[in-house]
Amino acid sequence: MVIAGSPLVLSHNIYSKIGQYRQKVFIEMLGWDLHAHDGMELDQFDRPDTLYMVSQDDNGSVNGCARLLPTNQPYLLGEVFPELMQGLPIPCSADIWELSRFAAVDFNAPGGSALAQFSSGIAVQLLRQAIVCAVEHGAKRLITVSPIGIERLLRHTGVHAHRAGPPMIIDGHPIFACWIEVE
Amino acid sequence: MVDTGYVYLTLDEFCAGTLVHLMSGVDQECHLATGTGAMATAITGYTEWVSAAAPVLTIGWDWQMIAEENVVRLERVGPPSSNVMLLSPGRRELGHAGTVALLNGYLDGFDWQAATLLHIGARQG
After folding, report:
1. Claim: this prediction has a pTM higher than 0.80
2. Which residue in A152, B26, B31, B56 has a CA-CA distance of 20 to 30 Å to A167?
3. CB contact under 8 A, A164 and B3
4. What is the CATH number of domain B7-124?
């Protein structure tokens, strides 16, 4: 089951679960150099107007998440990783939204891993619903900052996507910016 | 004009440029191949290339390492990902599928394996 909404809509319990899940995936599993407070990975882009997608299993355990931000407000690519655009204009528009902190690791399933997550059914469902949610909020295109492994998911789901620039090694991890067309 | 993020050029213009190796890596999970008697192991990974000149073209694809009778070779798996939109000689967009088809053909004749093996060998130490 996938739930979508801002922190004002999501219950405090769900919001806390998202932060805890992100800590497990991005800090503990992937080793990203991110900050955590009280066992939750949250940053300056986790604001009251931020939209979240959260997938839960039948027991209520989080097995996927994603974050959506309009690019006419501060967002990850524009503020932290503008170099991924290779000098091209940084998107700034109410109809271009950023997808970030995408993860679909099921910690209760055997064989869950950083790469395998991008070919899971959870990932496909989460990506599709994130696109739908973004469109419902006015998005005509999405841009994402992600590990390059997400291209496998994009191909698998048949989403029309292409690179905004070449990948760069940041904190030891190859990441890149990618356009996702939602037409 | 909408900035699509693509770099537009014809196949001839693409072929006239030089691609240089950017990075390659081995996937964290390496699966033993099953059901193929001739294949000992199948390690997978990615390789990334960029154009030597601006505007920067980026193109990357997945590969599978195949070991047969003490010979190791890399084989491309799946289509490439890029920021390239190829144009017809009349400079009409060929679309995503048309571009990928032509890039597939280009990569089939492009010697990427040696640089990739060298890079992942150096990284694996």
Report:
1. yes
2. B31
3. no
4. 3.10.450.610
Selected for mutation to probe chain A from B30, B58, B96, B100 (highest A CB count within 10 Å) is B58
Nearest chain A residue to B3 by CA distance is A89
User: What ipTM was reported for this prediction?
Assistant: 0.84
Domains defined along chain A, listed by start: 2-181 (3.40.630.30)
The first and second tokens of residue A67, run together, are 């974050």
Yes or no: say if A159 and A131 are a contact pair by the CB < 8 Å rule: yes
pLDDT digits (tens, 9 = 90+) for A33-79: 999 999 999 999 999 999 999 999 999 999 999 999 999 999 999 99
